[in-house]
Design brief:
This protein is mainly α. The protein contains 16 helices and no strands.
Length: about 450
């Protein structure tokens, strides 16, 4: 069974690597056209909101709750029941997200109407952030729909389509940045708004692609109000939302903390949130190729083991996955820590991105490099608990690390020099990822495998 897991990991990792390379090209263009100033900080904060919702209703809490139940139905041969469950869940998700988007857009429009104008026609950082939120927030509908489709296809053993999906966003994003090169006179605030519109278009392409793939697998007519009729009488439907609520509390705590990081970054320095965003995107390359690939494959794999009552097989798969992942991520961690200045200089520096920005991003990237193995390890550990329907352990661990991270972040902003505050924020994230891994490993000690001593 594990060779199949490795094969799927390399498939997902290879396609993710393709997407990350496109992302690297995207970041090289954006750093030169946008820079690391207040426009990038406004964009980073605005984009954090749909990303937070994506974690709750996309590949985060909902997928973690849905995939084990859906996979269990597939393993028992209840294909039609699995289809009905998928239709009911995605329809309700779209209704919830659509309503949330409308409320947010109306609320922001009212705020803009009531706020007095600056008078000189320029946008303050707050005004630009609000403007970008209005453009980017509808993206959550499309990316959550795409993430749900990816979870369904992964549960059916189809990993290629979901792994290729992020490339659509990067292609549209790069096209927008390339087009901006022909308009050098545009203000940076206008450029970032064009980029935001491109992201929204990329989200539409992502969801359309995944829904087309699901139709090929016999899951057509997914969004239908008729699919909701009588769904609350279905025990499996209620179980999905019960587990989603538990997982969402944990994921929500993490995302609120992430949003707090962004806000504290704004307090640390006007450029800090943008600088941290650039460093995080560089971390996405190794983490996405290896850590996310393992996490994507392991959730349906563990779910299949537990659905068949094979707890020992799930435990053996977890141990081997952690060893394989560490062997791959440790060299990346060492290179990132020691070579951060050269990496940032090579990828980002030029035009609007100056040498000072390079130093700032490199400092954060070095500290993130220390936590790279721990970030990836959690991608293996969390699905092991979620596949059993155990949402309480990830919830407890996330709550404890969130509190620790918030305290450390506040201390960093208050006591560190201005040029090092963002480094303290990055260091807090890396330290908390280590603490999270230790807490998960402690929880695993209470998990008794039938043949644990023989493995």
């Amino acid at each position: 069974m594990f060779p199949k897991v490795v094969r799927n990991v390399f498939t997902v990792g290879g396609l993710t690597a393709f997407s990350r390379v496109l992302g690297l090209v995207r970041e090289m263009l954006q750093s030169r056209l946008i820079g690391a100033g207040i426009e990038q900080s406004a964009f980073t904060l605005a984009f954090a909101l749909p990303n937070m919702a994506r974690k709750l209703f996309g590949e985060g809490a909902l997928t973690a709750a849905f995939v084990p139940v859906f996979k269990g139905e597939v393993e028992r041969g209840e294909v039609e029941s699995a289809r009905r469950l998928a239709r009911a869940v995605i329809t309700l998700v779209m209704l919830i997200l659509g309503s949330a988007v409308v409320l947010v857009l109306v609320g922001l429009s009212v705020w803009q109407d009531l706020r007095p104008e600056t008078g000189d026609g320029t946008l303050t950082r707050t005004e630009l952030t609000v403007k970008l939120v209005k453009i980017l927030f509808p993206y959550v509908i499309f990316i959550c729909g795409a993430a749900f489709g990816m979870g369904v296809l992964n549960a059916l053993g189809r990993f290629v389509e979901g792994a290729f999906m992020p490339a659509f966003l990067n292609i549209v994003w790069i096209a927008a940045l390339a087009a901006l090169c022909f308009f050098p006179g545009l203000a940076v605030s206008t450029r970032i708004q064009v980029v935001s519109l491109a992201i929204l278009l990329g989200g539409v392409a992502q969801m359309a692609f995944l829904f087309r793939c699901m139709r090929k697998r016999g899951l057509s007519g997914l969004i239908s109000l008729r699919g909701l009729r009588g769904s609350w009488r279905d025990e499996k439907f209620r179980l999905v939302w019960q587990n989603t609520a538990l997982a969402a509390v944990g994921a929500g705590a993490v995302q609120v903390n992430y949003l707090l990081d962004q806000v504290l970054g704004q307090c640390a320095a006007p450029w800090a949130a943008g600088v941290i965003g650039y460093a995080e995107r560089l971390m996405d390359l190794p983490l996405g190729v290896v850590g996310v690939a393992f996490g994507t494959v392991l959730l349906p794999t563990f779910s299949g083991h537990f659905a068949k009552g094979d707890a020992a097989g799930a435990g053996a798969c977890l141990k081997k996955s952690l060893l394989q992942m560490t062997a791959l991520m440790l060299p990346a961690s060492v290179v990132t820590f020691f070579c951060a200045p050269w990496i940032v200089w090579l990828i980002y520096e030029g035009n609007a991105f100056d040498a000072t920005a390079t130093v700032r991003v490199a400092r954060a990237l070095s500290v993130y490099g220390l936590g790279l193995c721990f970030f990836a390890a959690q991608k293996c550990l969390i699905p092991f608990f979620q596949a059993q329907g155990d949402m309480k352990t990830p919830l407890r661990v996330s709550a404890e690390t969130v509190v620790l991270n918030a305290v450390l972040n506040v201390l960093a902003v208050v006591f560190l020099p201005v040029e090092w505050r963002h480094v303290g924020l990055a260091g807090s994230t890396s330290l908390c990822s280590l603490v999270g891994c230790l807490l998960f490993l402690r929880a695993l000690r209470a998990f008794r495998l039938p043949s644990a001593r023989k493995m």
